[in-house]
């Protein structure tokens, strides 16, 4: 099987108009990661530097990062942004190299030798851990793994979570990802069948016996991290009974202060209050249930001798809020009082975490690459800090795993501005010819790495859409590595 | 009520549109970042410009469609005057005229990378109250201001 598509590379002649007075070479940039941060950066670089040549590599055969594997299947409008990214990829100065993994296919230092600029935009592909006993039990997953599973990420197509021998799930965390996974568990599968949800996930959800989902947060409704849009959506789900304890909605003076300073929190709180007061006292027969559980901190995961290593519940400590000095923020402290929630599935939605690659300075505590406005700082704690020449970072790897797609627009603007400044100062002027794309292709060739070009992705895309149209879905995602690679080289 | 005041001023700019029937003007002002456009504008002064009356009898007289005249100001202060059919969104108008404007969801009301600030309270008051869904999107907008 031959997938390598060299056509996109050969035969092109770049007109070098000279990006600086010294060099006549184009500025050669490699963006690692093809999610929103990577594509927005590529777009800005291509626009601002008429002689820049931008290659975007991704470890997957498919582009668009979390727009494909993170955004919920029932949020198709959020994915429209891929049209814009596809236009970027079709720029003749831009190339996509899928199925190329930094760290295994090619090392970071090799990339840095090939390009003037290496811009890391590979996000956060791991999870924060709670660090409480029992976290390794069966039936406990990170929300990320669950999301990647229902979105057809090829690394998680075999996750196969047990949804049919249990009736209750606990979601730990109260952000939008927590709402996404809760909504997918609760939503009618007739609705989901019309989305681009992975087929294996749809089938599993159709057989699901889960009736009840707890959404557990350490702090109160005033501090919940979700946004009003996602909250309104789940509160309005058909045939789902919402339970919110009215007692949890009592506000302290410190809560009132927090609400005053945040429009989002104020609107979220109002939505929760309204839902609490308009909800019936009991679910009606056949209704699924969503319980908002505030002021609870997971203490340990429970299992029984009969459960055979499988989780049977979560022991939570009740908490109260304490003001944190000047910041005005409040944090949760334990009260020593405990309560058990029985469940057969736990999804931890407490945050994503980035993973470093060899040769990359990394702050393991913050889970980001140390940087100044996108310029990567060396590991050594020298003063002033040493800047890694030609190495930049953008997106979640730069600022941590928060924000919406458009946040990356501003994040990319900042990093690209740093690159252009450094270019102006002559810091990126190559001393020797830099091979760029041609060198990358040669190196991948010598290592026998079969990359997928954007044309290859378009073949995958076309096949997915055509399979989807047979089922009245926008697409049927291909979820296996070998099938993706096969579709790319058809 | 929403009059928009930015605390996230470091990002781009904004276009501020006053709406009246068949006529509007766009004002950009530094410090107001509306995703409407990812363009920066000149320092700290209003750029009020506007509008000609738009009753179809403009230079494109052959066209039957009623148009209004709109001025876009980019981040460098450069102005572009275009005629826009009544009813067309600002995002479409910009894209049709090769004006760069970020709009991630392409006008499907699923993000707030582009939105409009109505500066003049008189015109602001002519608008219907924002729907819950619009407000939900605005929660996430850059450069949101109180009203």
From TrEMBL, chain A:
GO cellular component: mitochondrion
Residues given in the record as NADP(+) binding sites: 174-177, 218-219, 230, 403
Source taxon at top rank: Eukaryota
InterPro entries: FAD/NAD-bd_sf, FAD/NAD-binding_dom, Ferredox_Rdtase, Ferredox_Rdtase_adrenod
GO molecular function: oxidoreductase activity
Residues annotated for FAD binding in this entry: 37, 66, 102, 396, 403-405
Substrates-to-products reaction catalysed: 2 reduced [adrenodoxin] + NADP(+) + H(+) = 2 oxidized [adrenodoxin] + NADPH
Boundaries of every FAD/NAD(P)-binding domain copy: 28-205
Main location: mitochondrion
Subcellular location per the Swiss-Prot or TrEMBL entry: Mitochondrion
Cofactors (names): FAD
Top-rank EC class of the record's enzyme: oxidoreductase
Enzyme Commission no: 1.18.1.6
Keywords: Electron transport, FAD, Flavoprotein, Mitochondrion, NADP, Oxidoreductase, Transit peptide, Transport
Family affiliation: Belongs to the ferredoxin--NADP reductase type 1 family.
PANTHER family in UniProt: GLUTAMATE SYNTHASE 1 [NADH], CHLOROPLASTIC-LIKE
Protein name per its UniProtKB record: NADPH:adrenodoxin oxidoreductase, mitochondrial
Species annotation: Stephania cephalantha
Taxonomic lineage of the native organism: Eukaryota, Viridiplantae, Streptophyta, Embryophyta, Tracheophyta
TrEMBL record, chain B:
GO cellular component: mitochondrion
Pfam families found in the cross-reference section: Fer2
GO biological process assignments: P450-containing electron transport chain
2Fe-2S ferredoxin-type domain: residues covered: 68-147
InterPro entries referenced in this protein's UniProt entry, alphabetically: 2Fe-2S_ferredoxin-like_sf, 2Fe-2S_ferredoxin-type, Adrenodoxin-like, Adrenodoxin_Fe-S_BS, Beta-grasp_dom_sf
One of the record's GO molecular function terms: 2 iron, 2 sulfur cluster binding
Keywords, in A-Z order: 2Fe-2S, Iron, Iron-sulfur, Metal-binding
Cofactor(s) the protein requires to work: [2Fe-2S] cluster
Organism expressing this protein natively: Stephania cephalantha
Cited PROSITE patterns: 2FE2S_FER_2, ADX
Gene3D superfamilies, A to Z: 3.10.20.30
Protein known as: 2Fe-2S ferredoxin-type domain-containing protein
């Amino acid at each position: 099987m031959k997938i390598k598509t060299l056509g996109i590379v050969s035969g092109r002649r770049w007109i070098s108009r000279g990006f600086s007075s010294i060099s006549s070479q184009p500025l050669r940039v490699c963006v690692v990661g093809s999610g929103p941060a990577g594509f927005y950066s590529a777009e800005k670089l291509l626009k601002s530097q008429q002689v820049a040549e931008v290659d975007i590599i991704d470890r997957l055969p498919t582009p668009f990062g979390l727009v494909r594997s993170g955004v919920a299947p029932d949020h198709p409008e959020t994915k429209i942004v891929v049209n814009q990214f596809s236009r970027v990829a079709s720029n003749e100065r831009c190339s996509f190299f899928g199925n190329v993994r930094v760290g295994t296919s090619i090392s970071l230092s090799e990339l840095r030798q090939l390009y003037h600029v290496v811009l890391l935009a590979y996000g956060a592909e791991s999870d924060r851990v709670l660090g409480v006993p029992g976290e390794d039990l069966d039936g406990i997953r990170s929300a990320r793994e669950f999301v990647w599973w229902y979105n057809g990420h090829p690394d998680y197509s075999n996750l196969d979570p047990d949804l049919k021998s249990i009736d209750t799930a606990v979601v730990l965390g109260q952000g939008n990802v927590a709402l996404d996974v809760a909504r997918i568990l609760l939503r009618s599968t007739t609705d989901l069948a019309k989305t681009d949800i992975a087929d294996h996930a749809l089938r599993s959800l159709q057989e699901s016996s889960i009736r009840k989902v707890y959404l557990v947060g350490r702090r109160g409704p005033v501090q919940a991290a979700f946004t009003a849009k996602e909250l309104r959506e789940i509160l309005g789900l058909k045939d789902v009974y919402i339970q919110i304890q009215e007692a949890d909605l009592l506000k302290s003076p410190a809560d009132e202060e927090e609400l005053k300073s945040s429009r989002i929190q104020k609107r979220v709180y109002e939505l929760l209050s309204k839902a609490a007061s308009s909800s019936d006292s009991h679910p009606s027969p056949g209704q699924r249930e969503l319980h908002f559980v505030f002021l609870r901190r997971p203490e340990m995961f429970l299992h029984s001798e009969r459960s055979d290593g499988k989780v049977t519940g979560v022991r939570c400590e009740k908490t109260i809020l304490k003001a944190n000095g000047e910041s005005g923020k409040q944090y949760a402290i334990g009260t020593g009082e405990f309560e058990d929630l029985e469940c057969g599935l736990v999804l931890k939605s407490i945050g994503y975490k980035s993973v470093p690659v060899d040769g990359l300075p990394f702050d393991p505590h913050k889970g980001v690459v140390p940087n100044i406005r996108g310029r990567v700082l060396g590991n050594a704690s020298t003063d002033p800090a040493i800047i890694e020449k030609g190495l930049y970072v953008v997106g979640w790897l730069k600022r941590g795993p928060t924000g919406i797609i458009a946040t990356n627009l501003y994040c990319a603007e900042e990093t690209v501005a740093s690159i252009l400044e450094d270019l102006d100062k002559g810091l990126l002027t190559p001393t020797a010819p830099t091979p760029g794309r041609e060198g990358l292709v040669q190196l991948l060739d010598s290592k026998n790495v079969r990359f997928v070009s954007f044309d290859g992705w378009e073949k995958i895309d076309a096949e997915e859409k055509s399979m989807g149209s047979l089922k009245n879905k926008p697409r049927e995602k291909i979820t296996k590595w070998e099938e993706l690679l096969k579709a790319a080289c058809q | 009520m929403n009059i928009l005041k930015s605390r996230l001023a470091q990002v781009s700019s904004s276009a501020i549109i006053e709406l009246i029937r068949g006529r509007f003007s766009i004002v950009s002002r530094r410090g107001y970042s509306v995703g409407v456009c990812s363009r920066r504008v000149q320092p700290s002064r209003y750029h009020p410009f506007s509008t000609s009356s738009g009753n179809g009898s403009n230079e494109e007289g052959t066209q039957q469609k009623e148009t209004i005249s709109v001025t876009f100001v980019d981040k460098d202060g450069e102005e572009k005057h275009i005629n826009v059919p009544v009813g067309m969104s600002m995002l479409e108008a910009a894209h049709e005229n090769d004006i760069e404007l970020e709009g991630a969801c392409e006008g499907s009301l699923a993000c707030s990378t582009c939105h409009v600030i109505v500066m003049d309270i008189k015109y602001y008051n002519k608008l219907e109250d924002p729907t819950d869904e619009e407000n939900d999107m605005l929660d996430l907008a850059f450069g949101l201001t109180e009203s």
